[in-house]
Amino acid sequence: MSQNGQRSYTIGDIAKELGVSKTTISRAISGKGRISKETQERVRQFIIEHNYQPNIMAKGLAQNKTFNIGLAMPEEFGIGDLPFFQHSVNGICQTAAQNDYDVILFRITSDNLSQMKRIIKNHKVDGIILTRTQCDDYPVRLLKENGIPFVVIGSSLDTEVTHADNDHISACKMLTELLLNRGLKHFALIGGNMEYFVNKSRLRGYQMAFEEHPGEEVTSVTYLNVIKEFQIVKAVDDALSVGTDCIVCMDDFICSRVVAQLSERSVRIPDDVSVATFYSSMLLEHNNPLITGLEFDAAKIGGIACQMLIDILDGKHVSDYVSPDYRLFMGNSVK
Amino acid sequence: MSQNGQRSYTIGDIAKELGVSKTTISRAISGKGRISKETQERVRQFIIEHNYQPNIMAKGLAQNKTFNIGLAMPEEFGIGDLPFFQHSVNGICQTAAQNDYDVILFRITSDNLSQMKRIIKNHKVDGIILTRTQCDDYPVRLLKENGIPFVVIGSSLDTEVTHADNDHISACKMLTELLLNRGLKHFALIGGNMEYFVNKSRLRGYQMAFEEHPGEEVTSVTYLNVIKEFQIVKAVDDALSVGTDCIVCMDDFICSRVVAQLSERSVRIPDDVSVATFYSSMLLEHNNPLITGLEFDAAKIGGIACQMLIDILDGKHVSDYVSPDYRLFMGNSVK
DNA sequence: GTGAAAGCGCTAACAG
DNA sequence: CTGTTAGCGCTTTCAC
Question: 0.70 cut: is pTM over it?
Answer without folding.
Answer: yes
